[in-house]
Specification:
By secondary structure, the chain is α/β, with parallel strands linked by helices. The chain has helices at 15-26, 43-47, 49-66, 82-104, 161-165, 181-193, 212-224, 317-331, 362-368, 383-387, 416-419, 424-428, 433-437, 451-462; strands at 3-11, 31-34, 109-112, 116-120, 123-126, 131-139, 143-145, 173-177, 196-200, 228-230, 233-241, 244-251, 254-260, 262-265, 269-271, 304-306, 346-349, 354-359, 373-378, 394-399, 406-413. The chain has 3 domains: 3-145 and 270-331, 3-Layer(bba) Sandwich (FAD/NAD(P)-binding domain); 161-267, FAD/NAD(P)-binding domain, CATH 3.50.50.60; 343-462, Enolase-like, domain 1. Helix 3 (49-66) crosses helix 6.
Length: 463
């Protein structure tokens, strides 16, 4: 059987893969895409960012409608029609997915709808036995739901995030296993639509990748909304029951049991590498099971690149896009490239209050032995957030101590995911707190709160 050859071959058509293919095509290369998923579009569009944020926004509107009396608003009946919300979500997703599919099927790329496995460092076999090869290859096959070895989990029916995102009814009760971003966002969604929610988190606090102070704000909000949150747990048993599921765990020296109609496994995701036969290509993995890459996204086989969830280190869409584009440019011989700067990493958790971080955290700076100044200011002492009754959380700015160059920021509170972008440009341009204070800040706005920690840091440097 003849081999179809490409200059640049992409395995996986999600955020990293598609943007790499688009970039390589723009550089004049003959590009092939292999994608064996049931639907084209990638995780973000089909089962991640877009459907989840659609549901979260609807639940937020519902929540505020039901708690509008504090503003003197009498909303007699705020109810959720889950079937209507499900239809709206499907419509939103379809618009994004259709555009992606049209792009992939436009004729710019050789599109192969199949799974792939390496037979040698330059060649992959498709499901029908045909062969496809590439001068350079990008692996961007994304991730799948993690199935950890918790006692009884494999024998107990459970939901994944895919199932929660496809709900067209309100479940009575759900136990959420995990306290990461997906777990927290969808747990709050479930609670706000009327589900009784219990969160079981192994780590000492929710959202273990962020600061304990930020996590404490989210945990307080969750408990205030009626969620049962258990942290620092060890799961000792999971089993199905006639009414659903029973879960036993230890916490604080006590053994506890909780029951619910459904179990939601939100214990993270792992790289989707099954069947690729990476050993045939000479591609090595890290001890954590991700594809090992250098700063140009090259694997141990230098003509093979990786981008997105398969290599990480963070499963974030804009990072996957940047990695895919960098790989395509590097493989195409573009000069003057710079690697993705992880010191400028931006992350947002779409809970309410939201959590947003950019740049280096205090913990990361301490680990590096790097000096810094940090200052924070609470939302419960800020005009705009007070009139909104959005009182939980704070803004924190982290800066270099001699000149005041911005190193990072952390925001927990209203519109944190939008406000954090006030630091995106300044961080990239190596701006100082003094630079930001020279800019105008309108009153009364939420963004104006950022000036308070900026001024505090400026005063410390000038003292």
């Amino acid at each position: 059987m003849p081999t179809t050859h490409y200059d640049f071959l992409v395995i996986g058509g999600g955020s990293a893969g598609f943007n790499a293919a688009r970039t390589a095509h723009g550089l004049g290369r003959r590009v092939g895409i292999i994608d064996g998923a049931r639907e084209l579009g990638g995780l973000c569009i089909l089962r991640g960012c877009m459907p989840s944020k659609t549901l979260l926004h609807a639940a937020e509107v519902l929540h505020h409608a039901r708690h509008a009396s504090i503003f003197g608003l009498r909303i007699a009946k705020a109810e959720l029609d889950m079937k209507a919300l499900h239809r709206w979500k499907k419509k939103v997703i379809a618009e994004f997915a259709d555009y992606r599919v049209q792009s992939m099927e436009s004729g710019k790329y050789g599109l192969h709808r199949s799974r792939a496995r390496f037979v040698d460092p330059h060649t992959v076999a498709l499901g029908d036995g045909s062969l496809v090869s590439g001068d350079q290859i990008l692996i961007a096959t994304g991730s799948r739901v993690n199935l950890p070895g918790l006692p009884g989990l494999a024998q107990t029916p459970f939901w994944t995030s895919d199932d929660v995102l496809e709900l067209d009814h309100v479940p009575d009760s759900v136990i959420v296993l995990g306290g990461g971003i997906v777990a927290c966002e969808l747990a709050q969604f479930l609670r706000r639509i009327g589900t009784r929610v219990t969160i079981i988190q192994r780590s000492a606090h929710l959202l273990k990748e962020i600061s304990p102070e930020a996590a404490a704000v989210v945990e307080e909000a969750f408990r205030a909304e009626g969620m049962e949150v258990h942290t620092g747990t060890v799961v000792t048993g999971i089993k199905p029951t006639s009414a659903g599921v029973s879960l036993t765990f230890t916490s604080g020296g006590k053994t506890l049991t909780r029951r619910a109609v459904r179990l939601f496994n939100a214990l993270g995701r792992v790289p989707s590498l099954e069947g690729l036969q990476l050993e045939s290509a000479g591609v090595r993995l890290t001890p954590a099971g991700r594809i090992a890459v250098n700063r140009w996204q090259q694997t141990s086989a230098r003509h093979i690149y990786a981008g997105g969830d398969v290599c990480g280190p963070h499963d974030i869409v804009h990072l996957a896009v940047a990695q895919g584009e960098l790989a395509a440019r590097h493989a195409s011989g573009v000069k003057g490239l710079r690697p993705v700067n992880e010191d400028h990493l931006l992350s947002v958790v779409f809970t309410e209050p939201a959590v947003a971080c950019i740049g280096l955290s205090e913990r990361a700076l301490r680990e590096r032995g790097q000096l810094f100044i940090a200052a924070s200011y609470p939302f419960n002492d800020h005009g705009k957030s007070i009139l909104m009754n959005a009182l939980r959380g704070y803004v924190k700015v982290i800066a270099e101590p001699s000149r005041g160059r911005i190193l990072g920021a952390e925001i927990v509170g209203p519109q944190a995911g939008e406000l954090i972008h006030c630091f995106s440009g300044p961080l990239a341009m190596k701006a100082t707190v003094f630079d930001l204070l020279r800019a105008p800040w309108y009153h009364p706005t939420l963004a104006e709160i950022l000036t308070y920690p900026l001024e505090e840091i400026a005063d410390q440097i000038n003292a």
